[in-house]
Amino acid sequence: MLVEQSLALFSTGLIFVLSAILAAYLTMNYVAKKTRSLLYWSAGMWVFAISVMLEIVFALGIYSQPLIKSYLFLVSLLVELLALGSIQLVGSRAIRYSYYIFTVLSTIAALYFVAISYIGDIITGYVVFGLLPLSVTLVSSIITFPAAVVLVAVAAVSYWRTHSKKMLSIIAGTVVVSIAGTLYIVQFPAFLYYAEFIGILLLWLGFFSRKKKGPSA
Questions:
Q1: Per-residue pLDDT for 187 more than 90?
Q2: CA dist., res. 198 & res. 7, Å (int)
Q3: Which helix or strand (DSSP H or E) is residue 40 part of?
Q4: Confidence of residue 216 (pLDDT cuts 50, 70, 90)
Q5: Is residue 182 part of a domain?
């Protein structure tokens, strides 16, 4: 039991530090460049860092309805913020504004259903793992799948235009981090933290090794 808890604390602690550093880096870049893509991506990374901080709290054995509801909502918000960052690279204003409207409506729905639902104890082996109420699962899927489509589509188009492996690494990391937030429903709970760690490494590889003129320039 102590080994499981120590591993969970080490994993979440490391991921939190890496994500917080990356979030701060993106925020500083946004302040310097004032690009919307960096604004949404930096906000998404801060949300990710906060959600990982809650995973640390859960690994410490602290659990409550407000905490788990905050975690589930932040996971949904994270996915949408990262997708909003990617969709800034789309030239069509109609597509961007359509996704803005979808984001507002789906976020309100997520907040409502998470707030009214009772979430049982879904911590297993100090890891977030367990079945959620059907309404929460459905609204999470409604948010996640379109966001994943946006992320993958933008990745494909951006790579086709630029042939930049660093750009591909950034988008791939964004996709993995987004998907990681929904992995508490799989049969291998620890995979959540593996995916989060891999996603952060991909983002670090892309952002910290890219040229000055990045994807949002």
A1: no
A2: 16
A3: helix 36-59
A4: very low
A5: yes
pLDDT of residue 37: 86
Query: Tell me, what CATH number does 34's domain have?
Result: 1.20.1070
pLDDT per residue as tens digits for the range 170-184: 777 777 776 665 555
The mean of the pLDDT values for the chain is 81
In a domain, 115, yes or no: yes
The rounded distance, in Å, linking the Cα atoms of 94 and 51 is 32
What was the pLDDT predicted at 125?
Answer: 73
Residue 9 neighbours by CB under 8 Å, 6+ apart: 56, 59, 60, 126
Q: What's the whole-number mean pLDDT along residues 2-30?
A: 88
In the predicted structure, residue 188 carries a pLDDT above the cut 60? no
Which range marks the domain in which residue 33 is found? Answer: 2-209
What are the DSSP calls for 68-116, one per residue? Answer: HHHHHHHHHHHHHHHHHHHHTT---HHHHHHHHHHHHHHHHHHHHHHHH
Count of domains observed in the chain? 1
CA 66 to each of CA 49, 119, 120, 164: distance values in angstroms, whole numbers, following the listed order: 18, 10, 12, 42
pLDDT of residue 182: 56
Q: How far apart are CA 197 and CA 182, in angstroms?
A: 14
Which residues have C-beta within 8 Å of that of residue 168, sequence separation ≥ 6? 155, 158, 159, 206
Q: Are 89 and 215 in contact (CB under 8 A)?
A: yes
The label of the residue with tokens 């320039």 reads 217
